[in-house]
Amino acid sequence: MTRTRYTPDRGLTTRMVTTMFLIGLLYVVLVGVLLAVLNHAWPIILIVAGGLFIAQFWFSDRIAAFGMGAHEVTPEQAPELHGAVDRICALADMEKPRVAIARSDIPNAFATGRSERTALVCATTGLLRRLEPEELEGVLAHEMSHVAHRDVAVMTIASFLGVLAGLMTRIALYSGLSRSNQNASPAGIVIMLIPLVSAVVYVIGFLLTRLLSRYRELSADRTAALLTGRPSALASALTKVSGQMARIPTEDLRKAEPYNAFFFVPAFSSKESLSRLLSSHPPLEQRLDQLARISEELARP
């Protein structure tokens, strides 16, 4: 973790290290299977896999910011937002990230970046219009906690495996590798199993990133509440934003759904038990209960 005044979270660090190890192991297994089966094409496999990894790591944050329509703003253009970020940076003793605004009525915020130097914190116009100053500071402290703990970078890398597994599945299905004349040979049988192996890898990677994502949101809530000393303000922001989501057209929420893992509150969430289990965020009730406990602890003499 970067040396800031954000409370260190050993549980988050342990989960990030474990997730990265397991994701790396899955990545090695997937590439190893491809190299063993398609040994004549190993240079192409290594180039494609390496190129995708580099692209995912270096450009995923820019892609997410571009997809949400984030535009970097100066202190003159958004004095209230910059002022809130400056106060959080002073409290946390951390380098100021780039500040952006996304013109969207969906009340939300997100942070991207591989490190503090490349970090960007963005709030939507819908969020700025609806929140009080203390509530906004709570949300920004939450997002900047992701930057301080570097879990944004971990999530970026972890999500790469799913992209690679999906790509390999498409290659195996549409490149003609599993033609009928290969079915009888051992190599043909193995090649036909590539989509299955890729699907298993994708599912495991998906579950690992979901488990990490849910915990990191609770960690960001906790550290933001302790940093600002106002867990009630963050709880108020959570309640207000979640309630306002119901008034946003479903079509708009669906468009923003792919970026749920980056958001303060998921743009679209289902009330079905299975969907909530696989959600990128913990239930609202769990987040509010945690903040209520922190508020009680801070009130004790």
Question: Can you lay out the helices and strands and say which pair or pack?
Answer:
Elements (H helix, E strand, L loop, with lengths): L9 H28 L4 H26 L2 E3 L6 H14 L5 E5 L6 E4 L7 E5 H6 L2 H17 L1 H8 L1 H15 L11 H7 L1 H35 L2 H15 L4 H7 L16 H5 L6 H16 L2
Parallel strand pairs: 2-4
Antiparallel strand pairs: 1-2, 3-4
Helix pairs in contact: 1-6, 1-9, 3-5, 5-9, 5-10, 7-9, 9-10, 9-13, 10-13
- The assembly state of the depicted protein chains is single chain
Total DSSP E strands: 4
Helix percent reads: 55-70%
**Relative strand content:** 5-15%
Rounded mean pLDDT is 80
Protein name: Protease HtpX homolog
Subcellular location: Cell membrane
GO molecular function: metallopeptidase activity
Cofactor: Zn(2+)
Description:
The chain has one domain (10-299). The protein is 66% helix and 6% strand. The protein contains 13 helices and 4 strands. The radius of gyration is 21 Å and the shape is globular. The two termini are 30 Å apart. The model is unreliable at 177-182 (pLDDT under 50). This is Protease HtpX homolog. InterPro entries: HtpX_protease (IPR050083), MFS_trans_sf (IPR036259), Pept_M48_protease_HtpX (IPR022919), Peptidase_M48 (IPR001915). Its cofactor is Zn(2+).
Describe, in short, the structure shown.
Keywords: Cell membrane, Hydrolase, Membrane, Metal-binding, Metalloprotease, Protease, Transmembrane, Transmembrane helix, Zinc. By secondary structure, the chain is mainly alpha-helical. Helices cover 66% and strands 6% of the residues.
